[in-house]
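PROTOCOL LOG
Step 1. Enter all chains and additional molecules of the complex.
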Amino acid sequence: MEIRVEQIGDQETEYIEIGCHVRDARVNELVRKLQLWQGRVEAFREERQYQIAIADIYYIEAVDERTFLYLEKDCYESRKRLYELEAMLEERGFVRISKSVIVDLMKVTAIRPALNGRFLCRLRNGEDVIISRKYVPAVKAILRGEKGGGL
Amino acid sequence: MRDRFKEIVQTFFIIVTLVDAAMLILGRMFRPEQQFGYEIFIYPLIYGAIGCVPSLLMRERRELTVRQTVIREAVHMMLLVVLILAFLFGGRPVRREDVPVAAGVAVSVVVIYGLVTLIGWMLDLRTANAMTEDLRRLQQRAAEEDEAV
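Step 2. Run joint prediction.
Step 3. Record the structure below.
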């Protein structure tokens, strides 16, 4: 694929255009990557497609083979699996806190103990999400800056 | 696995200490005249080991909600009462004259269980506060980096 970069005037809106014979999986992947680079992910609600700003996502949960994006008040469904979103959003401060949840650390206001060696993350919108015992050491290491987490 | 082992060992020693205190209090209440040999020192260790049995047996594969965890803890505690009474009375039925002792032991188990949970929660609170501090530092660092960009 030939890559062309054209310089445009200050008054014009910057754009990326893809010229292709067929809009196949390869092109769709490229589009998704560009959207992510711009800070958006594709999501659905009532059969309608939306572009959700990553900065608006509080946490992502997998329930019965389906993946849901939770914003301050709204909830959208993603067609991606949790591990795919985890890999995509790791660099944006999202961290796995249990088998079924990844959370944006920037949206967490406090961590409190729950029963049984688990912890609760209180989010800015007042919701609580559980850090399961298995993930506590990894979360601690990320918070101390000893391990990835993309921050 | 290592964390689970650490947690069970921690629970064991907390139970041993609290059982020791409960034996002192219950002994003074029900059998103040009784004297023991060195073998008495083994009992807190046995009760500590029994106290760890439900933790070893009850292990969930899926993530429990806070409510489910509370129910699980209640079942855990009842199982513990049954195990300790079974050990204490050697599996024979509790006779009428044993009822005060059995009730005292059951109440002690509940109190000790509550204290073990409370002490564990307080240790977790310290960890949670340290994690919140680390989180604040991380968020501050990220905000400063964003401003720099």
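Step 4. Note key features.
The beta strands of chain A are 40-45, 48-53, 59-63, 66-70, 75-78, 94-98, 101-104, 108-113, 119-123, 128-131.
Chain A has a mean pLDDT of 88.
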